[in-house]
User: Fold these one by one.
Assistant:
Number 1:
Amino acid sequence: MARQVRKSSDEAPERPNPPSQLAELTEANKRLKRKIFDLYTIFEISKHLNSVLNTETLLDGIILTCIGQMGVNGAAIFIVRSHENDNLSLAKTKGLAVEPAKQLLIKEDSPVLRLIQSMHGKPMSYSEIRQRLGDIEEVRLLEALECEFLIPMSLQNRVRGLLSVTRKISGTEFFEDDLEFLAILANQLSVAVENARLFDSEKEALERLRTAQLQLLQAEKLAALGQLSARVAHEVNNPLGIIKNYLLMIREQESQDKQSVEYVQIVTEEVDRIANIVRQLLDMFKPRQDSFSDTDVESVIDETLLLLSLHAQKGRVTINKQLPDPFPHVYGSAEQLKQVFLNLMINSCDFMPSGGRIDIGGDVDDHVLRLHFTDWGPGIAPENIEKIWEPFYTTKSAGKGTGLGLSVCYSIVKAHGGEIEATNVAGAGARFTITLPTKR
Ligand SMILES: Nc1ncnc2c1ncn2[C@@H]1O[C@H](COP(=O)(O)OP(=O)(O)O)[C@@H](O)[C@H]1O
Ligand SMILES: [Mg+2]
């Protein structure tokens, strides 16, 4: 396979005579025109692409330009993605069998990159790279990308990206003009690529800040509401106890007609409901850390499943648990965690009225464990996903929900130094993910 560069002027005969001088002039004129056209194209493309801040759109633009302008079969772009190193990862391909992937890398200290760096921005042919470096992994990656030429995108003498082009569809070789075009284009666009990358990481930072702010707001709201609710709950609790006692006494009297029995039954149920709300309110704002100890999360889940088994059976909900063995312990309260798991799974059962499935899964990372509870219900409407943590927020019909379950979960998980998050899973329903620091 011929991979060497040929000058367009190589085709001109060596000894000039008048007709051939004319031919040479015509040829030179053609080349000049092509060059002006190339430069104009580069100018137009750069003008447009330098204002694109979305990395994906930008890379698409660059690849399409290369393919269109060079008439190649395909192209690929590597760019620096991370803040931590200058590794170049495969970010975009077109017309190739290889899909972009983070792990397809040309590392910052690789021989390929050192070689490219030594070329000071000039494109290098695959055959030359292969000849100099031999059959190493990164050369094999270039081969898989059908690389014919590799063009660096440098910024202040640092390679921030690599453009790889395949052979031309026409089968003809690359002329010097082509390589010049690619080199100028790559250079022009390296600033745009770096800008887009910085913009992306700013966007990510902003998103993280927004989440942190929302969580703070939620914590503040809970704290303010907590003080008030705890006071009200205490006030309500005492008269509630008295009412319950009297109800008990009325039920024990034998002189009641059927109607009164029914009424007393209704009042008792409603009083239980109030008591339930009060208990949840008090739970939410009780000081917590004091009852913490070494807690085996998996046994807490097993105990919760035991408690829930009848309820789940009645609702025709099956629960599958699949956790890594062994699953780590946390420093926390088994009772409180049980309440979190119970609240989540009762919600899931409630949202699958004609039966369904809950999957409990988990994984362990460096000093944290993650638990997922996924159900097969309708999921949570995206516009409500941030509201569900608010106390008293419920979409259940009047009298059915208190809107306190998830607020309780939130404050318990927070008290354990963890995070809780709700998402929807395509093809399933809602997923609640709890992250907790593991016990060291
Ligand atoms: N598994 C779930 N599937 C769909 N929506 C859910 C689920 N869990 C919670 N939600 C939403 O969050 C709201 C608040 O839940 P929660 O705080 O437990 O209060 P409640 O259960 O009393 O409604 C629910 O009313 C519902 O809109
Ligand atoms: Mg609930």
Number 2:
Amino acid sequence: MTEKIAIVGSGICGMCTSLALAKHGHQITLFERDVPPPAGGADQAFFEWDRKGAAQFRHPHAFLGLMCNLLQDNYPELLEDFYRAGARRIDFADMLAPELLSKYSPSEGDDKLWILMCRRATIETVLRRYVERIDNIEIINNCNITGFISEEGNTSSIKLKGLNYSKDGQNHEFFSNLVIDASGRTTKFPNWFRLQGATITEEKDNAEIVYFTRHYKLNDGVEEPPRHSKERSSGDLGYLKYGVFPGDNGNFAVILCLPIDEKILRQAVLSPEGFDAIGRSIPGLAPWLEKDKITATTNSFGMGDIQAVWRHYVTEQQPIAHNFFAVGDAAVRTNPLYGRGCSLGILHAHILADVISQSEDANQRALSFERRTEEEIRPVFNSSLNEDKSGIKRALAVAQGRLVEKPDSFKKWFGMAFGDALGAAAKYELHVIRGFMRTFNLLEKPGEFLKSKRIQLTVFRYMLRGRKKNAAERIVSGPNRDQMHHIIADMSSSEAL
Ligand SMILES: Cc1cc2nc3c(=O)[nH]c(=O)nc-3n(C[C@H](O)[C@H](O)[C@H](O)COP(=O)(O)OP(=O)(O)OC[C@H]3O[C@@H](n4cnc5c(N)ncnc54)[C@H](O)[C@@H]3O)c2cc1C
């Protein structure tokens, strides 16, 4: 049976949900508060699109293997559209350090380990144009969803039957069989449910970082710095994480991520000069920021409120609402540093389309969606949360001038020694980095590769080298925290002269 389905939000997950459902023949209407992308190409979309509805729109995005393979398997012609707009496929071999590249020969599964790089504006615009061409999907722009319509009567759970929205100063009603919330991190649905007496519980953990970005373009005739260089273009100095996002059409972005308590550095990166001075002092970023080779295309800008959030729409096997589903950031959010949001959102969209196609019963659908979300997304969410927690501990230790963490038990020591040995092995052993990249690209549950006996034996062999030697492999070259504070102080005093 085909159904009439309303989706709130035409961001990346809203559009991917519409595609997944449209394949089953449903009639989809996407409601979007923002204006559509302007006419033109990637630059018009990046510089001119008024995209207030997605605050992260101008921050760089990388699209991981999970998303790329789902797109390739289901919408191969869409990928061709991305490439035509300038997006680039970065394969496993392209990401290898020089030590490993010389040993590399292709192996089964390597073709799945790829990412797509371009500005988010490019992906979103191309995706939007593709969705607009599909007959059973309609997009209503410039409209604000203001609430939902539910069946009257004393039922134990709220049954949705449509949406209220305002457009051009007029209020409207839209009736549908299903309502899907893809309205992102600022979703209003939990509050609307609360107003009807239903409680949406939330797991919420602050990653305690602020994420800063600046965009640049390579000057005419300038090539990107070599990819396989010894100094990696992303890394963690303990008090600062950094990375380069090569984009489309000669554009690229640099990100600097700081703990919320690093007040002096946070202040410094807000000025374009401070951002560049910090970037140039880090050997992995310096080749990207050579003055006469690039032109900055934006100032530096930041985004806070970086939280891991999980919203529960089913409690004790009871759906809070029937005919309602939340996907993407509206349901589950992870720290953007790991680049997992869009991949998890698309996975979520495909889980939902599957669940809807397998049962017509509203209760059954809500419970299966909840179960599959827990099974397939929870492991990634938990692992992201653990990474956030160790990041917070590490930043605190560095700020206090301490060793990262001293083990207080054999179990802890073993865990840390294993982690160090794994990091070192991933640097020199192709089969280990392959496993690591399967986890990174979300192609398997986090850490699944560690079940391989071959990988375990390799890691144990590295443990025999001693913890000190393995731990040293993690060290990223760059100024320590005190040196970075001096760089900023010197810059401020020379500006004052
Ligand atoms: C700084 C930063 C960097 C990131 N980097 C990456 C990355 O590298 N890779 C990655 O995969 N993910 C990344 N993410 C995460 C990614 O941006 C999100 O996971 C993803 O955009 C979620 O998509 P969504 O469609 O659920 O929400 P959004 O993209 O936020 O879209 C929500 C849409 O709903 C619309 N809307 C909201 N309310 C209403 C309403 N009442 N009526 C009508 N429309 C409404 C909004 O206008 C918007 O278009 C990053 C996030 C941040 C914050």
